[in-house]
Design brief:
The protein is an alpha/beta fold. Helix content is 42%, strand content 13%. GO terms for molecular function: fatty acid amide hydrolase activity; monoacylglycerol lipase activity.
Length: 536
């Protein structure tokens, strides 16, 4: 363990223990309405990809009708969320019209079936995280210094979704350079949580989390280098899957890295309200070859899955972290109890060699010196970058920097090697490589681990820094390259989403997705922020 790092973690824990009750008692008074978003009125917004495709294929529904319904929902909720960065609604409706004409040109049911086999997402709307690159759309990624930059081409995963027939509606909000777990930038302002406007939607896929949680996206594409899919999924009550390292191309993503191993850490994946759609969306995003490697088309017998669980980090390492919220540990216990009643082999386990989880997790990021930096463009010679970053943090806190504080803190961690020497970073990275094998042995080819996604539900705006120091709950599984599915498990007494992570061994994504489907069936999955008020 690194003493300085751990002192920071302990200090944050002490501050949280003192400040959190005071904030709740004296600063944030109870409100009668935590969210102003309107209820869902169209039944189309409650249907999964699979059900909507059946209706499109049978010509009971048109793509124009579906796309227009989602556009209307986005326009109704975005004024309460600030999750949309740039829309392409007119172009999307034109593409939907072309899709309907294409379907209408088919003479037989067999022709229609073949068309949907070739393009399984035909006519279905999708929302895109800004950092994933949608051609012709803004590519600023929350940065004032990039505010006029447009994406010159589609990112690889976006391209695959479009080739499968999906129709992009917009690009959604991210933190600056995706370097935060709170989506709040000087360029675009603050993205709000659909369940409570005083709380963050998370980051870095915060816009996607907010839109999906509000029922304003059928599905979205996010990216994840340290929890950026899973944290917004937890905070906004939806499903998000971080694929195994390397199976979904991040070509075209910003920021990116020249490191040939970046795909092990940085991944793109699907975000949705419907667990049953995750496997198919991942197939499309991964492409034919990698989908075959993941065996996503092979049926998974639920009762053959071995389930293990842990409620937190253990021992001294666990004590140093902030305690995991009782509702989150309760959700894990409810899930394991249910799976046990189905006849699955379920047991609590001691996780292998995670005493240095903070150090191992941060070493993976600290070692990414070939990834884009915030301050590089201004002083390309790179001297005195730590001092420059510290000074920018001081300026940012005083409101005089063009960079956001959270992004600068992330930058400082990278510039300083997370306050570790290079030899220590190498040591912890070696421990991480050894740990991959230990998790492979623990989980095998038929096992999953249930574990907290993060220790707390969505925090108040500006207080996400307290949760940031528990980011090894998510970041650890990026550096290990393991697949993780976040599963929503209902709302707590404050009306905030809670949930858990289902983790598999490398390339065992299908096991995580199968368990997610079962937990959705048993516990209901996504719960809307406001009860539906359906017209029909």
């Amino acid at each position: 363990m690194e003493i300085f790092l751990r002192l920071i973690v302990i200090l944050v824990k002490v501050i949280a223990l003192i400040v959190s009750p005071l904030l709740e008692a004296f600063v944030y008074r109870p409100k009668s309405k935590r969210t102003l978003i309107p209820p869902i009125r169209s039944r189309l917004l409650t249907l999964s990809v699979q059900e909507l495709r059946r209706r499109l294929q049978s010509r009971q529904l048109t793509s124009v009708e579906l796309v227009r319904t989602y556009i209307e929902r986005i326009e109704a909720v975005n004024k309460h969320l600030n999750a949309l960065i740039e829309s392409r609604f007119t172009a999307a409706l034109e593409e939907a019209t072309e899709t309907d004409d294409l379907i209408a040109s088919c003479q037989t049911a067999a022709e229609v079936e073949k068309l949907f086999e070739e393009r399984p997402l035909l006519g279905l709307p999708v929302t895109i995280k800004e950092s994933c690159a949608l051609e012709g759309m803004t590519f600023a990624v929350g940065s004032l210094s990039r505010k006029n930059i447009k994406a010159e081409a589609d990112g690889e995963a976006v391209k695959r979704l479009k080739l499968a027939g999906a129709i992009p509606l917009l690009v959604s909000a991210t933190p600056e350079y995706c370097f935060s777990i709170e989506t709040d930038t000087l360029l675009n302002g603050r993205c709000l949580n659909p369940y409570d406007s005083e709380r963050t939607s998370g980051g870095s896929s915060g816009g996607e989390g907010s839109l999906n949680g509000a029922g304003a996206s059928l599905f979205g594409i996010g990216s994840d280098i340290g929890g950026s899919i899973r944290i917004p999924s937890l905070y906004c009550g939806i499903f998000g899957h971080k694929p195994s390292g390397g199976v979904v191309s991040v070509k075209g993503h910003f920021p990116n890295s020249l490191d040939p191993n970046i795909g092990h850490y940085l991944v793109e994946g699907p975000i949705t309200r419907f667990a049953e759609d995750l496997s198919e969306l991942l197939q499309v995003m991964a492409g034919k070859e990698n989908s075959s490697k993941l065996r996503l088309n092979e049926p998974v017998q639920l009762n053959q899955i071995k389930v293990q669980y842990a409620l937190a980090f253990e021992g001294i390492n666990g004590w140093m972290h902030m305690a995991v919220d009782k509702d989150i540990t309760g959700a894990i216990c409810k899930a394991t109890t249910h799976l046990k009643t189905l006849g699955l082999n379920v047991k609590k386990v001691k996780l292998p060699n995670l005493e240095n989880s903070v150090e191992m997790a941060l070493s993976g990021i600290a070692g990414q010196d070939l990834m884009d930096y915030l301050l590089t463009d201004e002083n390309p010679e790179g001297s005195g970058k730590v001092r420059e970053t510290v000074w920018e943090i001081v300026k940012s806190v005083r409101g005089h920097s063009k960079y956001t504080t959270n992004a600068l803190i992330f930058e400082l961690m990278r510039r300083t090697g997370a306050f570790m020497s290079q030899s220590k970073i190498n040591q912890y990275m070696k421990e991480t490589r050894e740990l991959i094998g230990e998790f492979e042995n623990l989980l095998g080819d038929n096992g999953v681990l249930l574990f907290p996604t993060l220790n707390l539900p969505a925090p108040r705006h500006k207080w996400s820094i307290l949760s940031l120091w528990g980011v090894d709950y998510t970041l650890m599984f990026n550096v290990l390259g393991l697949p993780v599915t976040h599963v929503p498990m209902g709302l707590n007494e404050r009306g905030l989403p809670i949930g858990l992570s289902v983790i598999g061994a490398p390339n065992q994504d299908r096991l995580c997705l199968r368990v997610a489907v079962e937990l959705e069936r048993a516990f209901g999955g996504w719960k809307p922020p406001v009860p539906h008020d359906l017209d029909d």
